[in-house]
Design a protein that fits this description.
It is an enzyme of class 4 (lyase). The chain is α+β, with helices and mostly antiparallel strands. It contains 4 helices and 7 strands.
Length: about 180
């Protein structure tokens, strides 16, 4: 059984598994944004941070990476991903079609935001996002590290994201 995972945030720089194949990919109908309050990894219950999620938006396209799992490690990898991504049930696990850079279409396990979940915050302005990201710290460290790692990996991969570029610049200014 061939199984793919679509990465658009921290899975780009910390997938937690060794893929058989990695390819640039596009997911249609979803936008990457800081639309999820983080109460575990990049913030706390009393001072939530923000993490990226895929918010369903018809007409949008999210560029990221599709990573194929080793067949022998599918069960272990899925167990790991579910423990990591479904810690607060704000993400929904979906099997969605992504288009690889070479034109192939594959079905990929994709974690998208549940817009009805209490941690969903899809209407925040970029400045408010920057203020939150600059101050929040959670179990996996400062929220700013998450932003900087994701933005730098997107840049290394040649995947432009104007909002993350703006947020990176603004948060660095706030932290200076």
């Amino acid at each position: 059984m061939t199984l793919w995972v679509f990465g658009y945030g921290s899975l780009l720089w910390n997938p937690g598994f060794e893929p058989v194949e990695t390819a640039h990919a596009q997911l249609r109908g979803y936008a990457r944004s800081f639309c999820m309050r983080s109460i575990h990894h990049r913030g706390t219950q009393t001072d939530p941070g923000l993490v990226l999620a895929l918010d369903e938006h018809p007409g949008s396209v999210c560029d990221g990476l599709a990573m194929q799992m080793h067949e022998a490690e599918v069960d272990a990898t899925m167990t790991y991903l579910r423990e990591r991504e479904l810690v607060s049930s704000a993400y929904l696990e979906k099997s969605l079609t992504v288009t690889l850079h070479d034109g192939r279409e594959v079905t990929a396990v994709t974690y998208v935001i549940d817009p009805d979940h209490v941690q969903y915050c899809g209407a925040l302005e970029l400045e408010e996002q920057a203020q939150i990201i600059a101050r929040a710290v959670g179990g996996r460290g400062p929220n700013s590290d998450y932003l900087f790692n994701t933005a730098s990996h997107l840049a290394e991969l040649g995947i432009p994201d104007a909002d993350l570029e703006w947020l990176s610049h603004r948060v660095r200014t706030l932290l200076a």
